[in-house]
Amino acid sequence: QVTLAESGGGLVQAGGSLRLSCAAPVSTFGTAAMGWFRQAPGKARELVARITWSNGITLYGGAVEGRFTISRDNTTNTVFLQMNSLNPEDTAVYYCFEDRYGSTPRSWGRGTQVTVSS
C-alpha cells in the first residue's frame, strides 16, 4: 500500500547535507508513528529513524545516530529527515513509512534515491 509522498533526495558529495520530506495524504489523527527506512543495493532494508506522532519521541538506527535528525510538523502532516555529514555508505533508496493505531497495515512511500559521492 503506497500512499505517502516523499521528496528531497538527490546527489551530494561526502560531508554534505540533504533534507527529505514525507507528507501523509490523509489526516494523521490515527497515526502512531512515521519514519524512514533505507535499502542499499544488495542489502536488507534497515531502519533509519522513527518518530512517535503524539509526543515526538525519536528512535535512530545506529549507523545514522548523531548525524541525522527526524522531526514532524503536525499542521501539515509532514515528517522530515535532516541528513548531515553524509558519506557514501548512506547511499540508498529511502522509504517513508507510517504506522497507524489498530490493525491498519503500514503505509509506504515509493522511495527517493540518495546518492553520496566520495
Briefly, what is this?
0% of the residues lie in helices and 55% in strands.
What keyword list fits this structure?
11 strands; 118 residues; eleven-stranded mixed β-sheet; mainly beta
Describe the structure in your own words:
The chain is an all-beta fold and 118 residues long. Helix content is 0%, strand content 55%. The protein has no helices and eleven strands. Strands 1, 2, 3, 4, 5, 6, 7, 8, 9, 10 and 11 form an eleven-stranded mixed β-sheet that branches. A hairpin with a 5-residue loop joins β5 and β6 (58-60). The protein starts with a strand and ends with a strand.
Task: Outline the secondary-structure elements.
Blueprint: E1 2-7, E2 10-13, E3 18-23, E4 31-39, E5 46-52, E6 58-60, E7 68-73, E8 78-83, E9 92-100, E10 107-109, E11 112-117
Parallel strand pairs: 1-10, 2-11
Antiparallel strand pairs: 1-3, 3-8, 4-5, 4-9, 5-6, 7-8, 9-10, 9-11
Shape, principal axes of CA atoms: globular
Report on the biggest sheet.
11 strands, mixed
DSSP helix count? 0
Mean pLDDT: 93
User: Could you tell me the number of beta strands?
Assistant: 11
CA radius of gyration: 14 Å
Q: Structural class given helices, strands, pairing?
A: mainly beta
The low-confidence parts are none
* Secondary-structure element series: EEEEEEEEEEE
* Beta-strand share of residues: over 45%
Distance between the termini: 35 Å
The proportion of residues forming helix, as a percent range, comes to under 10%
